[in-house]
Amino acid sequence: MVQLLTVTLGIAQFLALSSCLPAGEQERRAILLEAPLAPTTTFERIATTSQTASTTIPATTGTVITSVTSASTSGNPVNTTAVETSGIGTITTASTTLSPSVSAPSAATASNIFVTVASDAPPSQISSRSDHPVVPSGIVNQTSPVGTNKFYANFFLGDQASGTWTHPYSMTWQKGGGVSGSWGLGISHIERSQLAYPAGTPPLEYFAAPIGIESIIFSAEELGSTTSLTTDTLTAFSGNVNLATTAGRDPLISFPLVQGMGFVTSVYSGATPWLQSTVFFSTLTYVGPVSDGGVYKWRLVLADQSNWLIYATPTGATGAPTFNLQNTSVITGPSGFTGTIQVAKNPANTTGEDAYDAAAGVYATGASITGQVDGTSGSYTLAYNKAGHSSGNTTLLMWALPHHIDSFDSATSGSVISSLQLVTTTKGMATAVSTDQFTLVENNLPSEIGFAPWNASTGQNINTLSSTAAQAIVSAGTVELAEDMVAQTDLNSMYYSGKALAKFAQIVYAVNTLAGDKSGAATSGLQNLESAYSTFVSNTQQFPLAYDTVWKGSLSTASYGGSDPNCGADFGNTCYNDHHFHYGYFVYAAALIAYLDPSWLTVNNGANKAWVNMLVRDYANGADDGYFPFSRNFDWYHGHSWAHGILETGDGKDEESSSEDSLSLYGMKMWGQVIGDPNMEARGNLELAVQARSLSNYFLYEDGNTIEPPNFVGNRVSGILFENKIDHTTYFGNAPEYIEAIHMIPLVPSSAYTRKATFVQQEWNQYFSNGRVDSTDGGWRGILYANLALIDPVTSFNWFNDPSFNASYLDGGASRTWYLAYSAGLGGSS
Q1: How far is CA 373 from the centre of its chain?
Q2: CATH says 81-127+449-828 is which class?
Q3: Does the annotation count 578 as an active-site position?
Q4: Tens digit of pLDDT for each residue in 189-219?
Q5: What does the domain layout of the chain look like in residue ranges?
Q6: What parts of the chain have a pLDDT lower than 50?
Q7: Helix (H) / strand (E) containing 70
Q8: CA dist 654 to 165, 366, 650, Å?
Q9: Which of 656, 687, 723, 811 is catalytic?
Q10: Is 656 a catalytic residue?
Q11: GO terms for molecular function, please (predicted)?
């Protein structure tokens, strides 16, 4: 029996996608999608209809990317060029001693940690350039700085056809290619059973989610070969993707993408919806209206037997829109459709449907973050903006990652729907949460960690060393401070230069503060160090920095001029690769210098402080300031940084060295302390706590890790973690010491906080115990023995204190002096 369904639509709210859209566009969209329009269309349909398509073998294998070369960050991070003893001069000692600025770390308290570091232009010696070798594609009306290292970057890079991961879903513009030939946006969710692994026995070298499996594609009949994709309102947690029939036209479909969004939502503006699939449709069943009748629901079964839900919320129309299953690949909707269509995968039958029904019609459009710290406790809140049907009365459905679940406050924990879960590609199970905000708590902040070695078991900074250790430190330090600092620091790489500067800063600190040397060697060493550092502040190094007005950041000029089209120089710094790795060393070195010589902050009208603040603003800004984006590298949803910048990649963003990520946060924390910025210091403490939790889940695998696949976690470390795969390798080789130690360097006081002793012991037993460490070569052996201090400081100290110690086991960013001080401080010398 045919029934006419006439249901008056309520208010369909839509948050304007951008405050900087073309003149009149914001108001037009508000009228189109927010106002209670008088119905102009009545949809007629059969009340309950089940449509079936003939069986087709589903396409569920996709394509797997097994290489890691696309990131253009290859290069060995350990510069193993040793300084020959014969080339070392005698240090000229100064007659004065140093007067450090503070004697102990502070337990910073801040009620709002997300504030700008500064708001002025970069220092005048940093020239501006508008000729960046990578030109953005399709970013429109974006006045705030773009998050170059954020999840959505593939949509404005290259041919715009590589994926974006919001987790647990991913989205890819089809661009007329693939199995479907569609011009819409493909939605994929990959199950663990679909992951690709190499042949062999566990632990396996990698696992990867296949790409090209598009369960549902949002498209429109009007889209074709002239389709244009643009993005707008790109923030730290969200961005909008728009599809128009041709460049310059109003979007036919817009997609608000937010990390962890519960539904994939498409906003149609007068288009004829086409839903397509490369997995193939099996049955489509109209269920009926949900909530107050303004939202209509369908059940969709694909040929792989996965169950999906479709929710349509028309604007300016009455009744349920008609969707017809034309064949296994296409579902068509009504012409001229305006409103939203949402899809969600449902693995939980009725429980899942109930959760989705309760949130249907509403969707997240963005997020803001707030945070506060009080001593060793801190919290942060991700508050989601929302729009849609009855958004004021409907709570969002969001997806939480494992480290979120572990740290939710009681209110957020009470909103978790533990029975509704979807696996992510590389972050374990995502769990549904019915909430408009996440509030997460960390109660063990590293507030007390300072410059001295820090003992994790006692929670103490070790500032007093044995006389044996002090003598060894002074002896080694006197030799190493006589090295040519300028030659070792003024290199053609910001990365290697920063490592060397940090090394010498550690040596001066160890000799002066930990060993208590009064000979003047530390003072002379500091003077030489400040002179070497001034090369960078004055911007007269081999490849000066520039302020990039295209992407808005401070970067190396090494890849300008067309001589380096792949942006591979200096690990891709010019293309925003690894900024936190590179600049973290400079910030850490500057913090040590300013601690030892407080006047360094004010000389030359504060030029040193302004230059270092610029680096912090570039990679770890507390808020958008017009010149630099908020938190370029650290991802507050994932709990760690992404190293990959503005180079298109098929597996999304990635991070190799989790330990250098930690250094970037530790360096910022200590810089905030010495310059008297409690917000920066507190933010660094909270970030380190969040990151330590994230690393234990996703990067550093103790026995019993249930987050990553069981046939992979036996590797102990991730290697390179992408959004779509994890590969137990490095960009520069597959030797075990490379893969494990890239997550160790550099050994600093916070290492004991982020690298738990249990993990370190298990990793050592698996790879380096019983003398195997002594089969490693070059600077890697020194790193491994320094890491050993976390669990066996006596053996570590004795190795570095051996009279026959070979300096070739130190890389360009490491010193015998600091390793002696570090191991002694952790208990290596009584």
Answers
A1: 22
A2: mainly alpha
A3: yes
A4: 999 999 999 999 999 999 999 999 999 999 9
A5: 1-69+163-258+264-360, 81-127+449-828
A6: 1-38, 45-47, 70-72, 81-90, 95
A7: none
A8: 12, 23, 11
A9: 656
A10: yes
A11: endo-1,3(4)-beta-glucanase activity; glucan endo-1,3-beta-D-glucosidase activity
